[in-house]
Amino acid sequence: MDYTPREIIASLRAEMVDRVLKSNTMWLCTSCYLCTVRCPAGIKITDFMYELKRLAIEYGLGEHQGAAILAKTFVELVNKYGRIPEMKLMATYGMKTSKTKPGKLLSQAMLGLKLFRRGRLPLGVETIKGVEDLHKIDRWLVSKKMEPNLVERSKGGEK
Amino acid sequence: MDYTYFPGCSVKGLNKSYEISALSASKVLGVNLLELNDWNCCGATAYMSIYELRAHILAARNLALAEKYNRDIATICPACYVVLDKTNRYICENKELRENVNAALGEINLKYYGSLKVRHLLDIIVNDVGEEAVKSKVTAPLKGLKVAPYYGCQTVRPFGAFDDKENPQTMEQLLRWIGAEPVKFPLKAKCCGGMQRVTNEEAALKLIERLLKAASRSGADCIATACPLCQMNLEASQDRVNSIFGTHYSMPTLYFTQLLGLAFGRPIESEVALGQELVAVDKIIEPYKVSVIKRER
């Protein structure tokens, strides 16, 4: 972890936003919510970490973080199918990171093989009927400028 | 007792044994899980990392679809549970969010009024079904089976809707009702690393090793989980943990619903959904399997 959560807060107070958004701290947050339930001041730290992740993506500073690549892949697949085909998520993530972490693809493939042998690998991808409804909402959000379409934008290499 | 059942992607994919055993145990207990038609992914922890409003809308579509049935929503995956519950609560607390979400849902002729309660099956079985009804269904008490009760994070956090946020007791209660012996497992609500097993394996394996060590030292025969991600991390990483840390863990990791099925004497393969484990469970289930066969004769 580049900086502890305390250092993150202190850096933001010192207006060192770059340093915070480039760090891997928030990308290591698993949403276990332990900090949130323990914070004596009632700060929702997990939600705050989500906000930092979104800002890092928006400013193009999180692109190299594994968890960011996985999250983007996740969003792309949900947008396409309405649900998550887990094997496709793992395979796509493995391909996307194969240059920087070549061992990862292999170890994922080994695990896939083990699961396959135990009959646990799901086959096929299911698309929900409402997927067109989700696209409709997406288009509406973009037209109303309610939320930018970051996944599309980063694909187009605008940043 | 009728509930609108939200399965989640994981239990339809790699973790079918959780759904199969959950549906079977629920049926025995008279808990009627009616699957929500055309549900979509809850968004898990990933969607919220990229989009805030979209993530809430994604969760809220499920809530809106479920609202017409006016039943509590039953989840088995803690990630789905917490995401749906969080959106449900935030929508009710925050007028602006509620209006934005409903404006978006309006585009597909849906609206969420905020009338539902999102529940986890563990909560439903312990608090709605209760001790007497559970005990009355036990035909093969799991006498002598030492179980490390593992809740993971999101079953109890952040809201702690049905149990303590750091020291929950519900699963221990349930395990005792079916004759098993829950061991003292202080890490029961600590994180397994979640998706970090994929994106930052080093960090996740440290957490997983810590959990396996604590479970082994507690004398547990197996770990019981209420979460598909915890199950996968704890079971599928044991080889990696052993090779990196020089350990020799071989700790069966089952869903709490599989232990229920065992105690209720359900068919081992088709309903308890055993047989797809990466860490063998034969040794620990053998004594109880025998009583199942006896009973069937």
Q: Can you tell me about this structure?
A:
The complex is a heterodimer of chains A (159) and B (297). Chain A is mainly α. Among the domains of chain A are: 5-58, no CATH class; 66-117, no CATH class. Chain A is 60% helix and 0% strand. Mean pLDDT of chain A is 88; it is low at 153-159. Chain B starts with a strand and ends with a helix. In chain B, helix 9 links the parallel strand 5 and strand 6. Chain B contains 15 helices and 8 strands. Chains A and B meet through helix 3, helix 4, helix 5, helix 6 and helix 7 of A and helix 1, helix 3, helix 4, helix 6 and helix 10 of B.
Write the CATH architecture name of the largest domain in chain B: 3-Layer(aba) Sandwich
Helical residues, percent of chain A? 55-70%
* Greatest chain-chain contact: A-B, 62 and 56 residues
Radius of gyration of chain B: 19 Å
Report the strand count of chain B: 8
Order of helices and strands of chain A: HHHHHHHHH
- Described by the principal axes of the CA atoms, the overall outline of chain B is globular
Shape of chain A: globular
Q: Give the CATH class of the largest domain in chain B.
A: Alpha Beta
| Oligomeric state | heterodimer
* Portion in strands of chain B: 5-15%
